[in-house]
Model the fold of this input.
Amino acid sequence: MSVTDTDVLLDVQQLQASFLTAGGCVNAIDGVTFTVRRGETLGLVGESGSGKTITCLSLLRLLPKASAAITGGRILFEGEDLLQKSDAEMRAVRGGKISMILQDSLTSLNPAFTVGAQVAEAISLHQGIRGAKLREQVVHALRRVRIPDPETHLDDYPHALSGGMRQRVAGAIALACNPSLLIADEPTTALDVTVQAQYLQLLKDVQRESAMSMLFVTHDLGVVARMCDRVAVMYAGRIVESAPTREIFAHPRHPYTRALLDCLPAVDGPVHELTSIEGQPPDLAHLPAGCRFAPRCPLAVEACRAYPPETLVTPQHRVSCWRASELTRTPSMVTVDSVGASQ
Amino acid sequence: MSGAMGDALIEASQLRKHFPVHKTLLGGSATAIRAVDGVNFVVRAGETFGLVGESGCGKSTTSRLLLRLEHPTSGVIRFEGNDIATLSGEALRAYRRALQAVFQDPTTSLSPRMRVMEIVGEPIIANENLSRGDVRARVLSVLTEVGLPADAGSRYPHEFSGGQRQRIAIARALVSGSRCIILDEPVSALDISIRAQILKLLKTLQERHGLTYVLISHDLAAVRYLSTRIGVMYLGKLVEIADTESLYAAAMHPYTQALLAAVLPPRPAEHEPAPPLAGEVPSARRPPPGCAFHPRCPYAQPICSTDEPPLRNITPQRSVACHFAGALVRSSA
Done:
């Protein structure tokens, strides 16, 4: 890779996490490898159960201790392995250098504390300031997420705010200590489209001001196209393809990525017939021997069912598919391409 | 309006549903949430009428009024010409057979303690006099039709994936030989690869049985795929009704324009998108005077804050509630 070490903020290598279930031990994520560079946004895309959220929680070492554990790999953040840190060191990282915004602000904010108190907690924990200085910082944090007249909202409880405003408060808490990495796990999924547009714009603006990196988890390819510099596509606990955003939309190489793009109804351009992916993702307790997508893949051949695919690495692209090299030049998604070309 | 499609199956006129809000302890005045506030529309036989809008716009309340799960504060809903509020006895049972519903979340809309055979059979057991063998035969044939395995009947909902559970809900809606199905966010809870399966299934079933759909959704791409005509709601009112193609090609109401502009197409943009619409939907307890959209509207004029624009026909295929409709045409490009 042409990337120098100083460009890379987060380097995740062969990360594996296991969960104890009624059916035994399952690997919720299995050999997840990706990097996030300084100032860039990496999109982590996949359907429910693909391991996106488990990946995020693993990065912060927030997996439930009773039922889950990280069983392999390395998480290098600014060159240091987070898996080697003590619990106290990790507490300083969480909310400090790495922070997180969750999907549902109604559950991520505490209903019993005021907005001001919850933002103040994050700041005082990490920066140890109190009193008037703290209040000033809280107001600043709320203003930064474009909450109008922040002074008047300090004593509001979360339930009194609209969904969009609550998610801004969650953003204010996450951004309060100027993290170098923001993990955003479906931050706009619970919002209406016009409010989502505002929130995405806000995250873009904050990122521009602070050169922060983002790991953006979503299942919405429209959000990916709007927000991300690069994309990693997850399926059944593994990253099956990663590439720069423009590249992956123009030349998706994994059959699963192609299928995801083909099964979306269009909001503009001609109405096209949908290609659905038949079947459903595999049960993690009973994974197929070969490629995990093979049972649903229209292009699967004998080798796909027998052996896990190798990862093909090019300067632009990483793709785990036995047939990736054959599929390079095949024009796919005629409809999406032609929509992009017209208007 | 005489429809080019079928005859009017459902007609809603001056439909209102206000939910009372009681006085607070400190004596605030009693008000009402105007969830649906004077809505008129026609659903023609064989079409899919889409109702779109953001949360709180009244689209789900409208669907509950159609299903007679709520009674309107005022206004009338006619089904094949009959006021549904006056139905009782056999006529009401016939209405229930003709109009069924599929809801957003099949984990909560299906009873976890009933087997699929009972869940899907319940509408015909309740409304028709059938022998157990006949119920069984009808359920099995409809389960096959929605693409479920033959042994599905003897299993419980939790044994199925989300997409399969939504197929169970669709089977339940079909089993009574219904002619119209209210689809309230039928694919919103599903993963994208599963959404396409369900959307295609709904389209196939409609063609095969000549079904009429009322599709409630905030997903503008899914609505476009299924609908023939669309009504856009904002704060309890319909602001634009048009056939699908002209609506997506050139929305006339500024809110419809903003809504469509906020949808992110799944491909990288060539240039920065226009700045998003500011503000949020106001409270339905105190809707703004005049046009409810005027505080957020980029084209608002003094008249918009005083006079409420009526929904008026701009072309035979389109009605818009905006003082300046027609002057504000903006192509979606």
About this structure: The radius of gyration of chain B is 21 Å. Chain B is about 30% helix and 25% strand. Chain B has two domains: 7-22+31-86+179-263+274-333, 109-177. Residues 187 and 195 of chain B are 6 Å apart (CA to CA).
